[in-house]
Amino acid sequence: MQSKEPVVDKIVENHRRKGQQLVDRVLDHQAVELNGVVSAFDRKCMRLGKIFDEGARLARRLLMCLLQDNLRESTPTYVLKMARSARYFDNLMESMINVDPHRELIASLRRIVNLHPPVHTCSTSWYFSGLYSGPTSIAFLFYRLSRIFPDLEFEHQSLLDWAQAYIQLGARTQKRAPTPNHCGIGNETLAHLALNSILSQDASLVGKFCSYAENVNSSTDDGSNEWLYGRAGYLYLLRLCHEVFSVDRHPQSAKLLQKTIRETVDRILKVPRPWTWHDKQYLGAAHGSISIITQVVLSMPSIAHQLQLLLLELLDSQFPSGNFPSSLPAGSDRLVQFCHGGPGFIISLQTLVPFFPEVSGEIDKAINAARADVWKRGLLTKEPCLCHGIAGNSLALGEDDRFLYFLSFMNSERIEELLQDATRDNSRAGLFTGEAGRAWCWAVADKGLPRTCIGYNDI
User: What's the domain of life for this entry (predicted)?
Assistant: First the structure.
């Protein structure tokens, strides 16, 4: 019988050879992966080396700027971005970049219409927040600018034409009736209706706007009384309408507006004090007592004497730094911005001084202390805007050179560099959240206007 050993040996050899081939393929694959890992590691090391080299280069350049005492003009914007972890830039600079306010205004408007045109598509993703942000807020900017620059044409259209283009975006949205808790300048229904009545000169829209007072001034709901979401903001919108629908031109509409103002002021004063928002006693310009006092007094000056003691109590809350607490009981002294803190108080108080002659000295003292703090801590690292940025803080400064100095931190070169890293978010065009607010500041600088805040105390 023939031996089977050669056959077995052949089978074993075949399997051994196949096994070796399989092992070789696995090892080759692992070698490729390992080489890839090594290459990736080498690339990361090279990038890290470049980062270290760039860091050293920037450090040397920064040191040179400091030695030259020319930090403001010589340090590029991307070096300043290295300090964005801080709440504000240290204000150590003495020199200033020369800025042309009118040129900056036009550049600002161009960024609005180019980056956020008055169209409504799936890609625009507009948010509608009344005069605070969104198309209606931009329309309001163009309307206010048309009153300041009546002969100015921009991109072959009048400023009123641009206002009409943006207001039309809000006309297509579903409107919700305001409530006592959502009836301020941030309410899209009320803001759109007020502005549309002005642009169209339609008295019937004024009647509809005032009819919402029944909701706003509900006797069963104390609601909100502050400016952004509450009745104080409704007062601003009423004044806005009354400026156009005046007694001499529209007596019936003016009478209705005056009646609604009185009813709204009465409703605010009937709410037990301290006024609160979300069960917290806020003090600042967005949600607090100073915003309520400002809107009530500007809407109905005869009521000022009733609020004098409350105003003095607010002045007593001022921090030793000159800043004001965002709420009571006072917490940390850190927010220096329009919505919470000294800048909003300054902008409010400088408007209120004529209505409180008996305490004008105390008001002036508070303003001066707060301005010193804004100058020290007001160059905020957030994106420049009216609500919580350099734009709003600039309006709180008294001297022209300091005002322009703050504005130079949001000139076109800086803003366009900032926008390179930014997402295409339409809130960046809004009146209190972005470009439209910056445009207002440039307009104020261009015309040398009183430093009032649009949508707050400009009317």
Answer: Eukaryota
